[in-house]
Amino acid sequence: MLMCGEYMLSIDGLGSIDTVIKILLVIRRSRIKFKGMEASTNGGVRVKLCINGLEDEVSWIARKIENIANIASVNLLKGGC
Amino acid sequence: MQSLSEIPVNAAYGLVKSMEDCGVKIVFGIPGGAILPFFDYLYDSNIRFILVRHEQAAAHAADAYGRVTGNPGVVAVTSGPGATNLITGLATAYMDSSPLVAITGQVSRDMIGRDAFQEADITGLAIPVTKHAFLAENAETVPSIFKLAYRLSVSLRPGPVLIDVPKDLWLQPIKQVRDLDFIVKSLPEPDLSLVMEAVRILLKAEKPVILVGGGVAIGGLWGDVLGLAEALNAPVVTTLMGKNSVPSTHPLVMGVAGMHGRPEANIALLESDVVLVVGSRLSDRTVSDFTSFRNGRKIIHLDIDAGEIGKNVKPDLSIIGDLRKSLSEMVKLASGSIVRRSGFIGRLYEVRRRFEEYLESHSEPCFKPWKALKVIRQSIPPSSIVTTGVGQNQMWASLHWTVLSPRTYITSGGLGTMGFGLPAAIGVKAAFPDRVVLDIDGDGSLLMTCQNLAVVSEENLPVIVVVFDNRALGMIRQWQSVMFRRRYIASDIGSKTDFIKLAESFGVDGVSPKTYGELENAVRKYSELNEPLLVDLTIDADELVLPFVPPGRCLSDMIMPEGVDVNVW
């Protein structure tokens, strides 16, 4: 279904700032609009991304990020930013 | 944690020990200041080091080594330009899912970020083109990082991994080896209810086609795929990478589909009502226009990488996980069903017959690429492994080379890296010294990495290089011919390069045959002698690669050679 909207990606994993960069590198070459983010690397990596785009594209982005080494989980929420 | 007796004395020793523990036999690369302590410990090891003549070649050689052995090829180079020169090779391996571990020296930790001599942020540069890039932060983790990288590069979808080691760590004594906290993911189990649904759709289909990608070669799944094709009596077409996955001689294999696909393969896709995609990322070069490919047919996509599902073409049904389990279950479910599709397959054979009849009737006295490839195929043993350059040579090989067994056809399919063929052949020969290794190359492509002919002779890695020499960047010239009204600019590369003298200057014999007989004799002789050879094969610069689907157009817009009618309905 071609539904455009705002989504929150909540990502947990291991590593350092490089893990955050890897997530951003996926985002920057996708067809979604980056709205904002929060990131912390305190004992693990936690990133919250606010993005806007088509549901199919956002779901694909979530799967791409889940594939990154050291990513433990990705949760996709409609709205929530 | 290791016992006291196993504790390495320092990071350099520990890294070499880890390589030995992993079974590494060969390392490709070039030394330099920031990695010299590692080389000093390599001196005492049984691991063979192959000194290449540019770091890009080290990456390609290791990449090809990984593709044919299934074990990661290993590269070691220095910091700065040594490391940045790897990037094209890493990107090539990444695009084609090839296992590789690259070790780079780095400036000392206190100099990182200070623009030191030969400093480059190689982990930053490599992140987009590797599965992971490690910067070692302390000596105690260096041995375990290598073992982790080695495992990571072959796990799930293979790919390159980079380890950057600052110079000051190499000789630091290690009291205790420490493991790194890291998440290594496991292969998901396929959903069997989806597998059953896929088989139901395929059995109900009138013209199902199986599209095979490079994942089938990587996973060793050709038996399962062909078993399913036989159970369904469905034609198999491949991507460029998938050409390495199934034998071209199987009666259901129609060849490579796509921009320069075989007519019977493209027509199979165009006529299909269901396409089962196995281990392919459905690139633009295979399906051309994504939207038109999707229209009017059901797509079932099997892959181990969830990130490939829906990236280019949204499937009707997708099965993520262990492909072997999915395929073997599908074979079981489909076996015994009565399917008759001989009309569809018969028509595809007729298209093939008409195309080959055209080729046979246009065999002028000068070398025709398709015929030269047939002659070369007959001149070398069935077990031979072929690599290719990139350009027209690669596409002629894609159309006309007969793959007798999987994992014997190594090409840069994703990145399309000119200069890949020769260093890749070197990597394959290092892995299998007793097999004939032949590089099908172009003059423009070979000239990008030709200095590695020195490696062929100095390291005793006797490969045969056949240069399809049209004195042009042939594919660029073809596009200018077809799409830019023959306004040739920067595509003719001149006639002054003497490939025979070039080869001889590196200690490699060169021949320039005038007939197919001379070509056959030369290739046969040097392959039997296991001696290196460069064959300079003159090709007409106006020779096009056909069929051709112009970029962005649909497969139905395929341009055929004049006079070939593939409308057999």
Structure description:
The complex is a heterodimer of chains A (81) and B (569). Chain A has 81 residues and is an alpha+beta fold. In chain A, a hairpin with a 4-residue loop joins strand 2 (33-40) and strand 3 (45-54). The two termini of chain A are 22 Å apart. Chain A has one domain (4-78): Alpha-Beta Plaits (2-Layer Sandwich). The radius of gyration of chain A is 12 Å and the shape is globular. Chain A is 31% helix and 44% strand. Chain B is an alpha/beta fold and 569 residues long. Helix content of chain B is 38%, strand content 15%. Chain B starts with 10 loop residues before the first helix and ends in a 31-residue tail after the last strand. Classes of the chains: A alpha+beta (81), B alpha/beta (569). Chains A and B meet through helix 1 and helix 2 of A and strand 5 of B.
Write the layout of secondary structure elements.
The complex is a heterodimer of chains A (81) and B (569).
Chain A: E1 4-13, H1 17-28, E2 33-40, E3 45-54, H2 55-67, E4 71-78
Antiparallel strand pairs in A: 1-3, 1-4, 2-3
Chain B: H1 11-22, E1 26-30, H2 36-42, E2 48-51, H3 55-69, E3 73-77, H4 81-84, H5 87-95, E4 100-106, H6 122-126, E5 132-135, H7 142-154, E6 160-166, H8 192-204, E7 208-212, H9 214-219, H10 222-232, E8 236-238, E9 253-256, H11 263-271, E10 274-278, H12 284-287, H13 290-294, E11 298-303, E12 317-320, H14 323-334, H15 342-361, H16 369-379, E13 385-388, H17 392-400, E14 409-410, H18 421-431, E15 437-442, H19 443-446, H20 453-458, E16 464-469, H21 474-483, H22 499-505, E17 509-511, H23 516-529, E18 533-538
Parallel strand pairs in B: 1-2, 1-3, 3-4, 4-6, 5-6, 7-8, 7-10, 8-9, 10-11, 11-12, 13-14, 13-15, 15-16, 16-18, 17-18
Helix pairs in contact in B: 1-2, 1-7, 3-5, 3-18, 8-14, 10-14, 11-15, 16-17, 16-23
